């Protein structure tokens, strides 16, 4: 039943490969100064953005369709299909292609804005209307931390976005935002942007790089389902049952934030498979977080 979805993903993944192998240049050709040529170049970049966005959207659409069709399968079929899906994800590397497409789209949009600056004269800022940049000050509340765990990304980004990212550039310039961002990152996450020098121009590329590596919703969901599959079974003892419930609550909370239905047969079957007996599962099913 899932074959049409894997076939469709394969088709669009091939289109993604072709597009990524033939990227548009994001530099204005030397000597190109006339408005007409710049407008043609901008139209070409706009079309490339549309094509890349369409391909990425189609892959994600068929991925959602695949997950939806799993809900109509029997429990045995569903568990087998999840294994097939995991193998397909690993072999096809389409999630990595979607992430790279998103980075490519981001670079194209940056270039598009660069062209807009050349095509549309920037307003003149007079000394009377100019605002003075504030001195660098740490926020009065503790900033969130992120170590590269995929399920933790949505929560981290929402907090950082509210506290730092959404601040007016005149109140906090990009170089300060990049400084705070690097302060928040640990381990694998810090390594992801360690090659980016702490300069203003690198703030948006740093965000794009992190979003591509950690913010892909499909990869996050795959990670959460995998966590359910490898969840250490409970022995049935009170302390271990609490340990199991705490770990399960954390995974289910993340799944809920990602829009997954905790009442789906697949999730309930994975939870039941992690318990050592039907009696233990009955106990766990009484926790209000899950039922």
Summarize this, please?
This protein has twelve helices and no strands. It has 291 residues and is mainly alpha-helical. Residues 121-136 and 276-291 have low confidence and may be disordered.
Indicate the mean pLDDT. Answer: 79
Helix content: 55-70%
Number of domains: 3
The number of helical elements comes to 12
* Total E-strand runs: 0
Weakly predicted, low-confidence segments: 121-136, 276-291
Radius of gyration, CA atoms, in whole angstroms:
23 Å
Strand fraction equals under 5%
InterPro entries: DUF1759 (IPR005312)
Key features of this structure:
single chain; 291 residues; mainly alpha; 3 domains; 12 helices; 65% helix; flat; disordered C terminus
Commentary on this structure:
The chain has twelve helices and no strands. The chain has 291 residues and is mainly α. Helix 1 packs antiparallel against helix 2 and helix 2 packs antiparallel against helix 4.
Blueprint of the fold:
Elements: H1 3-21, H2 35-70, H3 75-92, H4 94-119, H5 153-165, H6 174-184, H7 187-192, H8 203-214, H9 217-229, H10 238-257, H11 265-273, H12 278-284
